[in-house]
Amino acid sequence: MTVHALEPQPLAFRVRPQADECFDSWIDRVAAAHETTRPALFRHLGLETGLASMDLARGTCGLANEQYFAVYQMIGQLAWAVQIEPQQVEGTFLNVEASAVLPRRQRQYVCPRCWQQAWQDGRAPIIRKEWILRMSWRCRHHDFPLCRLPAVEGMMSERARRAWIDRALAKAENLRQGLDYRPRLIEWNAEGLDRLVRASRKRCKGEKQAYVDRFQANLFHFARDRIAMLALAHSRLGKATWGFERLVSLDLPEHPRREAMTLRPPTPSPRSWRIGKGRGPLRRYDGNVLDLVMTYAHLRVRRDAHGSS
Length: 309
Ligand SMILES: [Zn+2]
Hints:
Bound molecules: zinc ion
Strand order of the largest sheet: 1-4
Number of strands: 4
Largest sheet: 2 strands, antiparallel
Low-confidence stretches: 268-287
Helix content: 40-55%
Shape: globular
Strand content: under 5%
């Protein structure tokens, strides 16, 4: 194509997107392979530097005309840089509403078992497209809760990654054992994720649609432990998340202060909220409601201020 006639050489390391890998995961691996940053990589490829800071998880989805063309060109350029078809780059995008995707800084949830396997097989660990969806909280290959990666500058070192995998496995195992999933909700969750990944616009019926409405654009990321909250919401103790869901759906002026405790579900009584069933030591999930109210209110104020500026 003439567009590429004056371009530099393709990249030295042809890092290709893996099946189901999300855009950020792939492009960060490309940059890391060349020991550089995304802005420097884009500059090197003659791309507009502004593109490097754009949220590209949804590709050209929802973009204004001028941005659309810049991103469209970028796709061709990146594909050429690692010698793949543009469709393979497009395959890393999620064609969904913005509300279905986690906020950018939160797209750091992965399955420690998948990462352990990748490490054992000598493959690069990736963040799957499905894991950046708000509805996502467990790995369907391993029936295992996802874990948040630690915040680090650039890529994690091999050693740090191994240490993290060990810690994350223990933590997720602990959470998994204490839960008693509701199979129907787990099934609907998987179905909902498949629909989003495939960009199906078909509506569900009845209770299933109610489930989708409740979880597709959920606000559980406002919780300190999003995964545990979602896991609870899909377990037989689903009511334990009732107060939280109610809280985050309120408008700021309606926000309770000290009376936050009234956000508890009517039954069962809070004392009986616990993870696990049967005999043995009982564990309680501490939702930390007041902390949550403050955090949420703070975020809401900031968001509103940002919106009106
Ligand atoms: Zn997994």
